[in-house]
Amino acid sequence: MRKFLCLLSIAIFFSLCFAQVQRVREEGNLRLENVPEIPQQLIDSRLRYENTRSARFCGWLPNNKGMLIATRFAETTQLHVVEKPGGARKQVTFFAEPVRGTAVSSNGQVAFSKDVGGSEFYQIFHFDLDTAKYEMITDGKSRNSGMLWSNKGDAFAFYSTQRNGRDSDIYIHVAATKEQYMTMESKGLRLPLSWSPDDSKLLILEYISINESRLYIHEMVSGESQQLNPSEEKISYGDAVWSQDGKGIYLTSDFAGEFRQLYYYDLESKTFTSLTKDILWDVQSVTVSKTNSVAFTTNENGMTQVYIYNTTTQERSKVNVPVGTIGGLGFDNSGENLALTINTPQTPGDIFSYNLKDKSLQRWTHSEVGGLNTDKFVTPTLIHYPTFDKFGDKVREIPAFYYRPRGKGPFPVVVLIHGGPEGQYRPRFSSGIQYYLNELNVAVVAPNVRGSAGYGKSYLKLDNGYKREDSVKDIGKLLDWVAAQPELDSKKVLVAGGSYGGYMVLASMIHFNDRLSAGIDVVGISNFVTFLTNTKEYRRDLRRAEYGDEQDPKMKEFLMKISPTTQAYKISKPMLIAQGLNDPRVPVSESEQMVEMIRKNGGEVWYFLAKDEGHGFRKKKNANYYQYTAILFMQKFLLNK
Q1: pTM value?
Q2: Based on the number of CB atoms within 10 Å of its own CB, is 153 exposed (0-12), middle (13-18) or buried (19 or more)?
Q3: Rounded CA separation 205/212 (Å)
Q4: Considering 37, 130, 577, 625, which has the largest number of Cβ atoms within 10 A of its Cβ?
Q5: What's the gap between Cα 495 and its chain centre?
Q6: What are the extents of the domains in the chain?
């Protein structure tokens, strides 16, 4: 007994010591492990940077009543009405959780979605702007989104997993009677894209992977569907919308080459006509006015261009807008004004309207930037660096955006890796990046390694399956590029990224541990097998199409081999790992098993857990505290302060 008590005392002693070493504390809904107290000086220095906001277009209101927008004035993004260009923003929703997808009908009805705690189990609400009353119209349990009002404004289509919790079927909600019915059963993910002008048909996209999707014309009365352009080849479709006369469809697809072109599909002759054959970049979004003007955007080297196509003259013109990323296109009822949300590295997202007659651009919102002088904000330079393999007979080059601080250097470097993996870093407003540049004097390089979207479907496939670690090799070559720049300090490099970018951070810390100072992994994948097993069921097959099927023994063995948990012992540099407890995409277990393994091997980890968040941090207080933590981490392990 005495020996047992002695051993028990020793065990308790060491467990208490371990708990003290980990320095666990709670801050509201945050659990912080090893994260030091945030100095007031840091909080004060961040104050102006965190008091920036942006706005996005949600829809025009009928009878010239202005537009509905989404912006944040308090903790979360909510809906507001703006009656005229430069007008005041009148808030109309007041929730603790952010409002996400929004659709406005031709007669002014609103449908929006929101979840709880970042779970992404979105519920749809019908909202009356006149009375400010709202009603949840979904079951409170399934995942629902993609609202699309009919042209008459009497019903909207949406997708829902309510049938089995896995597949996203297409449903119709009738506004007057509140009747709801399934119009198309799905296996996987299907999305409503566009109603025909007489509301008798619905365009529906079946998404299989970024490389493969199918487009259907669905008859509302009979319930029958016809696949558009069936093919045994893997074809990718993007946006699609009916022409106003109902005789054709404007759609984007890559069936004829590397990039998604804009086509007009004639329903009678069943022929495709390319409208952008000379633009060797992806066409992204497309919308049609009631006067049959077509507006569309292209992604040209990460920057957005906006074009107007006149269907009468068959002429195309480019809209003169600031260089940046642009989305949220929508024509008003007159067909003369096009709404768009413009975001640049120096200015947050704001809403403008473009008049097709006089070609003028009017600004509807003026989002605050905390009193900062945005002229001092740095615009990145597009660079290309050589990597390890060839494209044809030339060395392949990887595109990256380089933010260089003012001054001479040598500057410490943050390598910022996007998620996806089929995502793309595109220069947008980021108060965080501008803080690193202007207050910490740290350079930022954001590469679009192989597998990134925007550079053609061949480039997109370069990291698929057994080629997964080739994208990690691209980071190694970026470190070579950094070492060759006289103004950069190659001995002070930190890698940071979220989601799949979090995996890339962990993999980089494993393969290039001796060349890196530290890493920041936000909601990152640490083991592909456990990730595919535990990610929500409605996502599982979609992710298998990208990463490989862990149910295949050979692929499972490969995925285990390249997973960071398998090689965690190689990480000896400090890590900051951040996670949302309710993440449905990358479960919290992915972060926690990595934290445990690094610590088991004697490594240092700061762990940041937000209990009321999911895949990222959408509440202002959580996003602010994460930034404090990341900056403090950089100061200690990158800047050695």
Answers
A1: 0.91
A2: middle
A3: 11
A4: 577
A5: 19
A6: 27-49+372-637
